[in-house]
Automatic annotation (TrEMBL):
One of its GO terms (molecular function) is riboflavin synthase activity. It catalyses: 2 6,7-dimethyl-8-(1-D-ribityl)lumazine + H(+) = 5-amino-6-(D-ribitylamino)uracil + riboflavin. Residues 1-96, 97-193 form the Lumazine-binding domain. This is Riboflavin synthase. Catalyzes the dismutation of two molecules of 6,7-dimethyl-8-ribityllumazine, resulting in the formation of riboflavin and 5-amino-6-(D-ribitylamino)uracil. Keywords: Repeat, Riboflavin biosynthesis, Transferase. The lineage of its organism: Bacteria, Bacillati, Bacillota, Bacilli, Bacillales. One of its GO terms (biological process) is riboflavin biosynthetic process. InterPro entries: ATP_synth_asu-like_sf, Lumazine-bd, Lumazine-bd_dom, Riboflavin_synthase-like_b-brl. Its EC number is 2.5.1.9. Lumazine-binding repeats lie at residues 1-96, 97-193. The keyword Transcription does not apply. Pathway: Cofactor biosynthesis; riboflavin biosynthesis; riboflavin from 2-hydroxy-3-oxobutyl phosphate and 5-amino-6-(D-ribitylamino)uracil: step 2/2. Homotrimer.
Length: 213
């Protein structure tokens, strides 16, 4: 479990590519302070498992499912990456519930300054936009953000200077692909409602028969 509060920007040091899988070696500092084999680290919002590490870097495997559904498949050596360790039980919850299981990708459609902030418009599939609401939560490349507006083709977020400086958003350009994870609470609620079994005999016919309708 993560919070979407990026701890540092790492750099892709090396990549070994297969047909639909990869092994990444990432330079980092903060996330290595207490790292152990098997630990989870979110890389651009993707929960990955540490398979080896040194004092300056760590290695993770990217399996076919992750390769196909995230932007990790297109990254190149030297690329900056948002990094976050799994949330500590006694840590502050500064963002929102983030699983690190990316739902899909979106495309940067526009980047516009607005006062002291920058508004990013992201185009996304309707199946992802369905779970988004204005002022709700969205994770973009592992960053917990508040949705500014949502329509049937895209959504917008407003980014403050601190977030731009501390994450890879400042490196994003129009046309770039970003990882998206929708708010898991909304997905759980929908699942429960869809599969809820009626537990009451109170029906519209009953209410009509007894004069309530």
């Amino acid at each position: 479990m993560f919070t979407g509060i990026v701890e540092e920007k790492g750099v892709l040091k090396a990549v070994h590519r297969g047909e639909n899988w990869m092994v990444l070696t990432i330079e980092a500092a903060t996330v290595l302070e207490d790292v152990g084999l098997g630990d989870s680290i979110a890389v651009n919002g993707v929960c990955l498992t540490v398979t080896s590490f040194t004092t300056t870097s760590f290695t993770v495997d990217v399996m076919p499912e992750t390769f196909e559904k995230t932007n990790l498949s297109s990254i190149s050596i030297g690329a900056p990456l948002n990094l976050e360790r799994a949330m500590a039980a006694d840590g502050r919850f500064g963002g929102h519930f983030v699983s690190g299981h990316v739902d899909g990708t979106g495309t940067v459609a526009s980047i516009k300054p607005l006062g002291n902030a920058v508004v990013y418009e992201i185009k996304a599939e309707e199946t992802l936009l369905y779970y988004m609401i204005p002022k709700g939560s969205i994770t973009i490349d592992g960053i917990s953000l508040t949705l500014l507006d949502v329509n049937n083709q895209s959504f917008t977020v407003s980014i403050i200077p601190h977030t731009l400086e501390q994450t890879t958003l400042q490196d994003r350009k129009v046309g770039d692909q970003v990882n998206l994870e929708c708010d898991m609470i909304g997905k759980y609620i929908e699942k429960f409602i869809q599969h809820r079994k009626p537990t009451s005999n109170l029906t519209k016919d009953f209410l009509t028969e007894h004069g309530f309708i």
